[in-house]
């Protein structure tokens, strides 16, 4: 009889501890999951930013070799560089000869994107991301 009473007392204490652990988990788990989602969103933001920078850099290299390429062709080329990685990035470029300083012609390629966080409870929509690169080009004159 004494063993049964000791066993009941032990089980009653164990059930109380299990309930406390479940309550603690219920309080901490949502905060932890939101923290993890925030880290994933920050990773997505840097991923998109790096893709934008990659597209701009590749297009700037292209314009160094082809300085007289048109604005529309540059924008199309930039879009092709990132098309298999991410959609929705807007590229812009200036016309040849639009930026001449001290006899040196420059071309500027820019990228922009409106980033939406997936994280709940925080209304961060349409966060603007942008990057640009200004590169000197040789004139074909």
Q: Roughly how many Å is the radius of gyration?
A: 28 Å
Distance between the termini: 106 Å
Order of helices and strands: HHEEEE
Query: Mean pLDDT across all residues, rounded?
Result: 84
Strand content: 15-25%
**Overall outline:** rod-shaped
Q: Indicate the percent of residues in helices.
A: 40-55%
If helices are DSSP runs of H or I spanning 4 or more residues, what is the number of helices? Answer: 2
The number of strands is: 4
Total domains, how many?
1
Q: Outline the low-pLDDT stretches.
A: none
Main pleated-sheet profile: 4 strands, antiparallel
The chain-level structural class is alpha+beta
Walk me through the structure.
The protein is α+β, with helices and mostly antiparallel strands and 141 residues long. Helix content is 54%, strand content 21%. Strands 1, 2, 3 and 4 form a four-stranded antiparallel beta sheet that branches. Helix 1 runs antiparallel to helix 2 (71-82).
Question: Which features does this protein show?
Answer:
single chain, 141 residues, alpha+beta, four-stranded antiparallel sheet
Describe the protein's topology:
Layout: H1 2-65, H2 71-82, E1 90-93, E2 99-101, E3 104-115, E4 127-137
Antiparallel strand pairs: 1-3, 2-3, 3-4
Helix pairs in contact: 1-2
